[in-house]
Amino acid sequence: MNEIKKEVMHVGEMASGAALTVPVYRIKGRTDAPSVYIQANMHGAEVQGNAVIFQLLELLTNTKINGDITLVPYANPVGCNHKNGEYTLGRFDPITGVNWNRMYHFDESIIKPFVRECIGKTNPVIEANFKKLMIESIEEKLNHNIYGLTTGQRIAYQLQRLAHQADYVLDLHTGPISSKHLYCPEYAQESAQYFDIPHTLLIPNDFDGALDEATFCPWWSLQDAFAELGIEFSISSASINKESFTVELGSQEQIDLDVALEDAKSIMNYLQHKNVITTTGYLPKTMTRYGCYLKNYKAFYSPMGGMVDYLAEFGQPLAAGEPLARILRMDNYGDGDPLHYISLDKKVIPILHFASASVNQGTELYKVFSEYFEF
Amino acid sequence: MNEIKKEVMHVGEMASGAALTVPVYRIKGRTDAPSVYIQANMHGAEVQGNAVIFQLLELLTNTKINGDITLVPYANPVGCNHKNGEYTLGRFDPITGVNWNRMYHFDESIIKPFVRECIGKTNPVIEANFKKLMIESIEEKLNHNIYGLTTGQRIAYQLQRLAHQADYVLDLHTGPISSKHLYCPEYAQESAQYFDIPHTLLIPNDFDGALDEATFCPWWSLQDAFAELGIEFSISSASINKESFTVELGSQEQIDLDVALEDAKSIMNYLQHKNVITTTGYLPKTMTRYGCYLKNYKAFYSPMGGMVDYLAEFGQPLAAGEPLARILRMDNYGDGDPLHYISLDKKVIPILHFASASVNQGTELYKVFSEYFEF
Amino acid sequence: MNEIKKEVMHVGEMASGAALTVPVYRIKGRTDAPSVYIQANMHGAEVQGNAVIFQLLELLTNTKINGDITLVPYANPVGCNHKNGEYTLGRFDPITGVNWNRMYHFDESIIKPFVRECIGKTNPVIEANFKKLMIESIEEKLNHNIYGLTTGQRIAYQLQRLAHQADYVLDLHTGPISSKHLYCPEYAQESAQYFDIPHTLLIPNDFDGALDEATFCPWWSLQDAFAELGIEFSISSASINKESFTVELGSQEQIDLDVALEDAKSIMNYLQHKNVITTTGYLPKTMTRYGCYLKNYKAFYSPMGGMVDYLAEFGQPLAAGEPLARILRMDNYGDGDPLHYISLDKKVIPILHFASASVNQGTELYKVFSEYFEF
Amino acid sequence: MNEIKKEVMHVGEMASGAALTVPVYRIKGRTDAPSVYIQANMHGAEVQGNAVIFQLLELLTNTKINGDITLVPYANPVGCNHKNGEYTLGRFDPITGVNWNRMYHFDESIIKPFVRECIGKTNPVIEANFKKLMIESIEEKLNHNIYGLTTGQRIAYQLQRLAHQADYVLDLHTGPISSKHLYCPEYAQESAQYFDIPHTLLIPNDFDGALDEATFCPWWSLQDAFAELGIEFSISSASINKESFTVELGSQEQIDLDVALEDAKSIMNYLQHKNVITTTGYLPKTMTRYGCYLKNYKAFYSPMGGMVDYLAEFGQPLAAGEPLARILRMDNYGDGDPLHYISLDKKVIPILHFASASVNQGTELYKVFSEYFEF
Questions:
Q1: Which residue of A has its CA nearest to B24?
Q2: Where is the domain boundary, C268, C287, C306?
Q3: Are residues D138 and D18 in the same domain?
Q4: Are strands D348-353 and D364-370 parallel, antiparallel or unpaired?
Q5: Crossing angle for the helix pair C257-273 and C48-60, nearest 10 degrees?
Q6: Same structural domain for residues A95 and A120?
Q7: Interface contact D57, partner C, CB < 8 A
Q8: In degrees rounded to 5, what are phi and psi of residue D65?
Q9: A58 and A137 belong to one structural domain
């Protein structure tokens, strides 16, 4: 049985002085083996990842561990506990409105000077030095601030400091009401098939503040900077392999331990493939897998206010002209049109929809794969 | 085809001066036939009643109408449009916290003086005079206030003025995540079977501010006051029949027009039975019907904070000791008990549970029928 | 220098498992001397009481202590830390809307049986036994609950358990934007003059869930029950003296340590008068003191939606017809009346007004003393 | 007396179908004279601008008007009416968290093609064509959207369509608790002195979604693009003059009609200087005026959670080491440091502070001018 070490990380303070803490679970591996960092519940309502971490810990206890495994449930103690009415208002800082998953750090300007210093060094040395630089950069942000950090930055940076120590990073999220899907950097598309998730979003090297980007963009940018100099430094190689995913587990505001076990097995399969663990028990499921480039992942905003009967099934191609939803407008009954069918003029795969039937004109109704493909 | 008349009722004003309005639909019947008042969406997230009113209007268009029918969707324009994050914060006034369905009016002190004036009058005269008194009372509250009314009172009283004009009142609500159930005054238990709803709560003559109470308590108290004098004045008779129900249609934050059609048919059946309409198309479904007195309708508060995997199926008896839910406490993993099974030591029927997996210690987890019975 | 003992009381748990704790400060006195319990910040935005407790502790350190002194700042760790936008949404449980200061416990039915058992006992024995009964009742509520307690009850009962151990109870609150005022049970009017607070509300023996009521109503009801039997049991006597006040310190969302020192001195004066401490440094200020019975403390609800320029000065009599406020309705500019002056047709003393300029029709605009008197 | 025309602009729909409308006031001038667009209350709690528009309309009624004047109070009907507790949660969309003043539109890619087409045209023709292009661009965004617009974009774009028709744009805001200050594009610094506002922020040509930027950045970018080609096209000239300011009027959640009259007069002075009106009654006040480049406008985030006694006076230079605030941490009393003084190690001018005494670690405590200068 593997030893699971628990720490409690202090990430902030509330007005009453109450400490904001995050539990950190570690299973120690060999330093020369690939390592993984997995966190859950950065958005307060997206709780299912905690159940997946629970099931992962249960599974990992008796699995052969190669590299370090770090697991952080309840990653955001503000978002996790912030209720407004019965639901959890956890997508953004309730004071500022800033999305909790847009506060991670990456300063692209560190790349070029670093590359210049690396000329002539071996790839393993470069890898080690760059990892060190990333961790130092984030510690610099945490420790040397005249004007301070925002609440969300302080939380994000402390999580990021843990994430930068791993080769693979999984950030467990959910959609509002949603099918499972995966945010995957374009260069790591091959790895998407190890997850039991039929829909994959392929994302480019653009940093927008999320954890997956904050952990793969630096390496990707480094690879690109070397490539510009004609030097090969591959982050998808056998020797240096860096990947980071946002795993969307389904719908928010729900815990289902049985489904969580399935998702934990899917992650075990990825970890086995990446040699973080050695086990034979896990195989990816056979399924049709759809891919879509991020630029073709479209949000569809409601063309009117009203009450929505969501019709389109998730995950399956929806033909052009087929209804996504019908919108009830009882105020129009008798002197207008009380029922409106909403459709698109092209084929799409609906991935998620808004969490409530009540929408304003302009509320994000659906997110869909357009221009998708099988892979 | 029956004529459906639409009015727009002005119920208040926002800070910008924007009018708070409510649509009122009326189908005119004979004045000597029994009448009904139906409203929906007093709580902002409980939107399905609007869809039921839509389907009712569709069905009523070609049905023989006997008495007046008044339908009010979107009854609460504040609650209906108040979002916090993706969900609708519509159970209480966001400024004061007061439940929107606890602001109706009934002043029991009007009963005794009224009864004294009625000695010797016929029941139809008494009925007409009491109805007039109730409407006048509410108009007095609306129009003669030195210190004013709260936002919620102004909305509630205007709805109540409409409701007092009808013999039967249906207030369409939903639970958070919930099975269908019916709040029914004890004296009207016989009518509960005309609805396709398997669970009925029998409520006593205690006024607590809700619309159903505000419309049946006055008549019930009148009946009781006469009975104390040895005079029979029955509100469950062929000549005078007053009933008021809160119809809980299922879960909040959802619109399903197909399910709404089923519920509309169930209401059509009740209206046909009460002779508000004449039709032959609707029959109550055969089902096991469970009753429970309000005092035995128990809220179960979470014994701990945590993330809940709700296990108990709605609507079916759950044996003593069987789990209602299991609660995940990842913070205890490794040095405590991460999974807690929650059960009761008596047989109950779970009716609804909390809308979110995240609960504080003391959050209302489930509501259950205890001491229930078949009828 | 007196020893100040600090404890941390665990009052609940959040969804993440985070403990809800409250700091409790105690200064030990003689058991035969009168004791006091002081708490602050039960409503989240009403923070100034914490500063008053800070200044009290500073003053008490070098004061001669007679009886036990218990001080609880940050009494409500949920309300205290719950932000929505920049402000603190702390007047009610954000999940249920229930006012945090309406969840204390008093079951009047314990009085009569207790009185029957007391016949023939001495007043000091009765006092001791009743205190014991009150504490046992609240512990019974805390410990023996099949269906559990709400989050707010669990917090309130634990505070109440501390309060029941003291002779004098001060619950430090503030209004929204407000002058200082005092809620005082009618029988304790004489004590109001020891506070440097010009406005006193005299409240009857009606329990509505607040801490002041929950601590004085039991004693008052006991006194009344004995009186009905012709037995004198006075709670305003030299030997048995029980008082409980809600002290409204001014406006919410503000900390001012200098003003807090003034208020701490005012409380020191009361404590010296009650012999909880012995000191000569504190004397009540000379001021015109106004009283008002609770039934004459009127809330004035806005007769329209709009944006309010509050005009009436706090604390001074306002003649009939003089404007309380003027309400801007820009939407009416050009085709209506953009500016409305609001007044009452009787003399009042404005005590507090709403915290924001934006009001709906029906928002509580002002609270005023009507039918006030000097004392 | 000038004619003030009122229109009601439909900018969206709520879930109930309720129309979101904005009142638009217009005073017609000569087409060859400079025109102004003034709006208020884009952020819901920042209501004082409505009162300023009220006073402006009162003043303008009897003033000689040269160019078109358009005034829009209550610019954001969602934010304006959204309450959470007593306060207005109006800085961001309550569903998404996106700041309402970050949703305006400017697509820099239109500049270069436009410039290429302009070679050889006269400046007045270029000006007219560019204005037309800006309006067409925004109408294109409003009318041709397959996937729709967000709620906030729809509101913002409709306001922007009005703003693009004017030469001068004033967006009336307030801070949380704040002194008056002005956001001014660097090239328009000379105009800042016509306002009775002692503090001016000078902002560069960087578009971040706010209305002032959305109206001056296009012209500034156009000027720069011509300059790159060696062509002079000045937007600060006598013939072509484009300016746009965010005017911060003081603190939010307050209406003061007397102060509003002062601010209206300050704006009248600017309009007279710009020849939008002709009048002799208004002169800028003599005052020390401080300027600060945007990059030196620093937010200071709280280094700890706690309850803040704000000490620094607004608008006056604060010496290095002098306290901005002291933070109370009652939970530390007895076993830690309950009072912390917060200061900076350089001279600054405090401009605004957070609206509440309760702050988390990382809450924005103050905003200050650093590296400021007199002008």
A1: A331
A2: C287
A3: yes
A4: antiparallel
A5: 60
A6: yes
A7: yes
A8: -95, 130
A9: yes
Q: What CATH number is attached to the domain comprising D277?
A: 3.40.630.10
Among residues C83, C225, C78, the alpha carbon closest in space to that of C155 is found at C78
- Checking DSSP bridges between strand A168-175 and strand A243-251, what pairing results, if any? parallel
Residue C336 burial class via C-beta count within 10 angstroms: exposed 0-12, middle 13-18, buried 19 and up: exposed
User: What distance in Å separates the CA atoms of residue D213 and residue D104, rounded to the nearest whole number?
Assistant: 9
Chains with ≥3 CB–CB distances under 8 Å to D:
A, B, C
Do D152 and D280 reside in the same domain of the chain? yes
Q: Say how many domains are in chain B.
A: 2
Residue B125 C-alpha, separation from nearest chain A C-alpha, in angstroms: 36
C338 and C281 in a common domain: no
Q: Which of D9, D16, D252 to mutate to test the interface with B (most CBs of B within 10 A)?
A: D16
**Helix, strand or coil, per DSSP, at residue B193:** helix
Report yes or no: A293 and A202 within 8 Å, Cβ to Cβ.
Answer: yes
Write the CA distances from C75 to A17, C88, C244, C312, D199, integer angstroms.
13, 15, 17, 33, 41
Whether chain B has a CB inside 8 Å of the CB on A23: the answer is yes
The reply to whether residue D16 touches residue A305, judged by beta carbons under 8 angstroms, is: yes
pLDDT category, B252, cuts 50, 70, 90?
Answer: very high
Strand order in the sheet with D177-178: D177-178, D348-353, D364-370, D297-301
Q: Assess whether A178 and A101 both reside in one domain.
A: yes
**What DSSP letter does each residue of D126-181 carry, written as one string?**
HHHHHHHHHHHHHHHHHH--SS---HHHHHHHHHHHHHTT-SEEEEEEEESEE--E
| Euclidean distance between CA atoms A142 and D67, whole angstroms | 53
Residue C303's CB is within 10 A of a number of other CB atoms, namely 17
Residues forming beta bridges with residue A248, ordered by sequence position: A173, A181
Beta-carbon contacts of residue A255 (< 8 Å; ≥ 6 apart): A47, A48, A50, A51, B307, B308, B309, B328, B357
The whole-angstrom separation of Cα C169 and Cα C67 is 13
Looking at the fold, whether C251 and C160 belong to one and the same domain comes out as yes
Q: Assess D161–B contact: CB distance below 8 Å, yes or no.
A: no
Mean pLDDT by 10 residues, chain A (375 residues): 95 96 97 97 98 98 97 97 95 97 97 94 96 97 92 98 98 97 98 97 98 98 96 95 98 97 98 95 90 98 98 95 98 94 97 98 98 94
Return the CATH number at A326.
2.40.50.100
Is the CB of residue A307 less than 8 Å away from at least one CB of chain D? yes
Q: Is the pLDDT of residue C181 over 90?
A: yes
Q: Which of A261, A287, A313 is the last residue of a domain?
A: A287
What tokens were used for D206? 């960087």
| CB of D95 less than 8 A from some CB of C | no
Q: pLDDT tens across C279-291, in order?
A: 988 888 999 999 9
Strands A348-353 and A297-301: unpaired
Interchain contact, A305 vs D99, CB within 8 Å: no
Which ipTM score applies to this complex?
Answer: 0.95
CA distance D228 to D264: 39
Q: Do C82 and A80 touch (CB under 8 A)?
A: no
Q: Which chains touch C (3 or more CB pairs under 8 A)?
A: A, B, D
pLDDT digits (tens, 9 = 90+) for B169-206: 999 999 999 999 999 999 999 999 999 999 999 999 99
B172: left (phi over 0), alpha (psi -120 to 50) or beta: beta
- Span C60-112, pLDDT tens digits: 999 999 999 999 999 999 999 999 999 999 999 999 999 999 999 999 999 99
For residue C132, is pLDDT > 90?
yes
| Residues ≥6 apart with Cβ < 8 Å to A58 | A264
**Structural domain of residue A273, as residue ranges?**
5-287
Q: Does A80 touch chain C (CB under 8 A)?
A: yes
Is C249 strand, coil or helix? strand
My answer on whether D305 and D212 are in the same domain is no
Cα separation of A146 and A140, whole Å? 12
